[in-house]
Design a protein that fits this description.
The complex is a heterodimer.
Chain A (H helix, E strand, L loop, with lengths): L4 E3 L2 E4 L5 E6 L6 E7 L5 E8 L2 E4 L8 E5 L5 E5 L8 E8 L9 E2 L3 E5 L1
Chain B lengths: L2 E5 L2 E5 L4 E8 L6 E6 L5 E7 L5 E3 L5 E5 L4 E6 L8 E8 L6 E3 L3 E6 L1
Parallel strand pairs in B: 2-11
Antiparallel strand pairs in B: 1-3, 3-8, 4-5, 4-9, 6-7, 7-8, 9-10, 9-11
Classes of the chains: A mainly beta, B mainly beta.
Chain lengths: ~120, ~110
């Protein structure tokens, strides 16, 4: 596609439910990133994929959070047993080459609200 | 470890006035530095980047930034603010490890008539 696509754009869920957030990166981009943006906060790094592997998961806040990437393309971020503090905008970014000039292209995000 | 500090969470300027958004970085290796802009309810868009070439970097929409190693700064400027510049601006540094971006907390720019 023309850009990074994320779905859904908005998600309201009840506390304790599981949610899945999807990211479709730009075709051919090998690097994929998930970030979280909480109200009034900056962007918090969650996880980085190179191809289908995740060399850096250091930003995942708890074991309720997990992510996978298949076929070197689509990625899913899963949050189990959601809590109110999980409410945030989850942003996905992809880049063609993690070395060199490294321009990351961002999707419009998924706004997650846990009630 | 790399980090970014943006001074001023909110900046307000008059239309036509100079825009100056401050960013200081910490990096143990020569940094790659970026400025992104986020308009309401949208994702982040790259404004400009520094990758160890020219220290004065020009970006889109009339913005530019100057890399100053001695001051560990990468401040963003625009000579004349437009109403359409109202947005949130993020400074970021590329980490030396797995090439993720480390972001500052952001500066919200308001432009008033």
């Amino acid at each position: 596609g023309a850009g990074v696509s994320q779905s859904p754009s908005n998600k309201v869920t009840e506390k304790g439910k599981d949610v899945e957030l999807r990211c479709d990166p730009i075709s051919g981009h090998t690097a994929l990133y998930w970030y979280r943006q909480s109200l009034g906060q900056g962007l918090e790094f969650l996880i980085y994929f190179q191809g289908n592997s995740a060399p850096d998961k250091s930003g995942l806040p708890s074991d309720r959070f997990s992510a996978e990437r298949t076929g070197g393309s689509v990625s899913t971020l899963t949050i189990q047993r959601t809590q109110q503090e999980d409410s945030a905008v989850y942003l996905c970014a992809s880049s063609l080459d993690p070395l060199g000039g490294f321009e990351a292209f961002f999707g419009q995000g998924t706004r997650l609200t846990v009630v | 470890a790399q980090s970014v500090t943006q001074l001023g969470s909110h900046v307000s300027v008059s239309e036509g006035a100079l825009v100056l958004l401050r960013c200081n970085y910490s990096s143990s290796v020569p940094p790659y530095l970026f400025w992104y802009v986020q308009y309401p309810n949208q994702g982040l868009q790259l404004l400009l980047k520094y990758t160890s070439a020219a220290t004065l970097v020009k970006g889109i929409n009339g913005f530019e930034a100057e890399f100053k190693k001695s001051e560990t700064s990468f401040h963003l400027t625009k000579p004349s603010a437009h109403m359409s510049d109202a947005a949130e601006y993020f400074c970021a540094v590329r980490s030396g490890g797995y090439n993720k971006l480390i972001f500052g907390a952001g500066t919200r720019l308001a432009v008033h008539p």
